[in-house]
Write a structure and sequence with these properties.
Layout lengths: L8 H7 L1 H10 L2 H11 L5 E5 L2 H18 L3 E3 L3 H4 L10 E7 L5 H12 L3 E6 L5 H5 L2 E4 L12 H17 L3 H17 L5 H5 L7 E5 L4 H15 L3 E5 H4 L13 E4 L6 H13 L5 E3 L14 H7 L1 H14 L18
Parallel strand pairs: 1-2, 1-3, 3-4, 4-5, 6-7, 6-8, 8-9
InterPro entries: GlmS/AgaS_SIS, GlmS/FrlB_SIS, SIS_dom, SIS_dom_sf
Keywords: Aminotransferase, Repeat, Transferase
Protein name: Glutamine--fructose-6-phosphate aminotransferase
């Protein structure tokens, strides 16, 4: 674990993320065997199931599956099964459920239904003794250990890394595997970065916008959720391209913008957003790229860079919460396990 002299559980658990990813990479033999089995199935569609932070890991995974495997991906709506009682035909589908606890009844029901309908069901879980683990055909353990803070951190980073590794093995993407091998070290470096200039703009803000595109969209949504639940601040995540349209009207000098830029074809949209805000004298907090305005560790692989950006963002949000007099580990009205039906 990276030693940052930390007090809150959120900070301590964020600092454990490099070790979580290192363990995932060290135990990838079983995952490689599963990838071989899935390659033989020749599925036509992938369906991802997850809520909250796990859903954001699913957004990151969606871009990977569509760009590396070339299959369309859908996010399932568990209420179709639990409330509307309608089965969904999923033969020749890959169904991936992502959860920290694996205990929410709707995720259990959706996984059981997908398996009954003929899908190959894979669960990315921190608790491998959970009901979702029993419902799925294959279980991929995060091995993140106990997470005490309501705000999930290391398990989210682990979920994104594990999903990326699964796709890299499915696609025989050796470049991505190599980048994932570098990720623990880069996360340790990223944990040392100070993004508190963003935090200082938040206590008096009316709202905040987080923008990303492609692999950066899932992390953008995750950062927005953490701001909302930990800082009690309305925070909205948009594609960098989308923010330039209708939502742009709501951006003012009282709504800070954090823009996540990864070094691939999506970078142009992020640059265009930042240039547009600059022209209106609305300075954006730009992370990533050669002109990064926030401290950055330098670009590597766009898939893993998007994950690494969570580390300084989590640290910034935790410190901002403490500065505002909030307990980052126990946001009001929330509990660790969400039991939706």
């Amino acid at each position: 674990m990276t030693d940052l002299g930390l007090g809150s559980a959120m900070a301590q658990e964020t600092a454990e993320a490099p070790d979580v990813v290192a363990r995932i990479m060290a135990s990838r033999a079983d995952l490689a065997a599963l990838a071989v089995r899935l390659q033989r199935m020749d599925f036509d569609v992938a369906v991802i199931c997850g809520r909250g932070s796990s859903g954001h890991a699913g957004v990151h995974l969606r871009y990977l599956l569509e760009t590396r495997i070339g299959v369309p991906v859908s996010a399932t709506a568990p209420s179709v099964i639990t409330s509307l009682k309608r089965p969904v035909a999923l033969r020749r589908a890959l169904f991936i459920v992502i959860s920290q606890s694996g205990r929410s009844p709707d995720l259990v029901a959706a996984t059981m239904a997908a398996r009954r309908e003929g899908a190959a069901t894979v669960a990315i879980l921190n608790d491998i003794a959970s009901p979702v683990a029993r419902a799925a055909e294959w279980v991929l353990p995060l091995e993140a250990g106990l997470e005490r803070s309501v705000a999930a951190t290391k398990s989210v980073i682990g979920s994104m890394a594990l999903g990326a590794l699964l796709v890299a093995l499915l696609a025989d993407d050796h470049e991505l595997v190599a980048a994932l091998e570098r990720l623990p070290g880069r996360l340790s470096q990223a944990l040392q970065l100070d993004w508190d200039v963003v935090g200082r703009s938040l206590p008096m803000a009316r709202a905040a916008f987080i923008a990303g595109r492609g692999y950066g969209l899932g992390p953008a949504r995750e950062i927005a959720l953490k701001m909302a639940e930990t800082l009690r601040l309305p925070a909205l995540a948009y594609s960098a391209a989308e923010l330039l349209h209708g939502p742009r009207a709501a951006v003012t000098d009282q709504t800070p913008v954090l823009a996540l830029r990864v070094g691939d074809e999506t970078a142009e949209a992020v640059d265009a957003l930042v240039a547009n805000l600059d022209a209106s004298h609305l300075a954006a907090h730009l992370a990533g790229g050669p002109d990064s305005r926030l401290p950055w560790i330098g670009d590597d692989h766009p898939v893993t860079d998007a994950i690494a950006m969570l580390a300084p963002a989590y640290r910034m949000i935790e410190r901002t919460a403490l500065a505002m007099g909030y307990d980052p580990d126990n946001p009001p009205h929330l509990k660790k396990v969400t039991e939706t039906l």
